[in-house]
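Onboarding guide, step 5: your first structure request.
Type a short instruction followed by the sequence, for example:

Predict the 3D structure of this protein.
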Amino acid sequence: TDKECNYIFYGRWGNIDSNKYYRGSKRCRYTVVLPQRGSISLFFDNVNIPVGERLLIWKATWVYLKPDGNPVKVFTHANSGKFHYIGPESGVIFEFNSTTEFTIRLQKYERVIEEFGESGEITLPIRPYPKYLELKYWITVPRGHVKLTVHDLYLPKYDYRSKINVYRFNDRKRELVRSFDNSSTLDTSTVISDSNRLAVTYKSYRENSIERFRITYSMLETGRFVWDLGFNVTINRG
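The system replies with structure tokens like these:
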């Protein structure tokens, strides 16, 4: 890497936009370190890896903050877009060609993830991640109701404990709306809430299982809503 494009980011959380830093050199290195031990959670947005280039992720040695061993993950052009990666350590190093672009939201790996906005997407984190993975997404849209759709769902038939649960908030309590397990089909994949908040929980008990999912949410401004519990009910307001 070149000295002009070698940066260190230290903290419990933060944001990195590759376009805000000098990238005139051919190769760049970003080192990200948490102040405490644990795993680091990286939310990659707007990733653009040119064809033929690679984004390498290494463990960072604590003493010298240099790459340790072989890369733990290699991303290519096929990974361009958006994804969530949970690293194996509290310190990681990215090495990439200066033409690669991305923005990252980073934080210590926590089970609760706040999602706020008019629309967004949740995907299964890319390995490696803890053998027992439990994630809780609190989804809030600015107004109206939350429309949630589960796409490309696959939970292995042999893994009966892995599931996705969707909850709505009633005062301070959560109420289960829908549960997706390995018997679920995508013809009942959409949930529309009666408020601007929903919670999604995901549990996986197998480190090497081949489960997958993609969940999109959006803001629905309307005078009526459909409460989808396996059957449809339409309520007219006013």
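Each response can be followed by summary notes, for example: Residues 223 and 237 are 6 Å apart (CA to CA).
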